[in-house]
């Protein structure tokens, strides 16, 4: 299984929330610091699913809270499918 490139993830998330990649730090809270709403979380999820060929369960949307957490989720999903 290939490692998930965190900078690729950062760019994907930043594009979805219309920020510069450097504004999306590893630990920035998406809701309280980056003002990500549920619709934007859904957009991030759809982009992750398309790029990595994974499927996110509805309850996992609640776990999309920081770049570190997204990285953990995608890595775990890819590991489970390999």
Shape summary: globular
**Structural class based on helices, strands and sheet pairing:** mainly alpha
End-to-end distance: 6 Å
- Gyration radius, to the nearest Å? 12 Å
Model regions low in confidence, pLDDT < 50 over at least 5 residues: none
User: Per DSSP, what share of the residues sits in E-state strands of 2 or more residues?
Assistant: under 5%
User: How many helices in DSSP terms?
Assistant: 3
The arrangement of helices and strands along the chain is HHH
Largest sheet descriptor: none
The average pLDDT is 93
Count of distinct strands: 0
- Roughly what percent helix? 40-55%
Task: Give a structural overview.
This protein has 82 residues and is mainly alpha-helical. 51% of the residues lie in helices and 0% in strands. The protein contains three helices and no strands. The N and C termini lie close together (6 Å).
């Amino acid at each position: 299984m290939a490692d998930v490139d965190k900078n690729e993830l950062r760019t994907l998330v930043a594009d979805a929330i219309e920020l510069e990649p450097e504004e999306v730090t590893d630990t920035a809270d998406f809701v309280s610091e980056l003002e990500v709403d549920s619709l934007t979380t859904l957009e991030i999820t759809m982009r992750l699913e398309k790029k990595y060929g994974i499927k996110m369960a509805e309850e996992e949307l609640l776990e999309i809270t920081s770049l570190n957490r997204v990285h953990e989720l995608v890595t775990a999903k890819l590991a489970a499918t390999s």
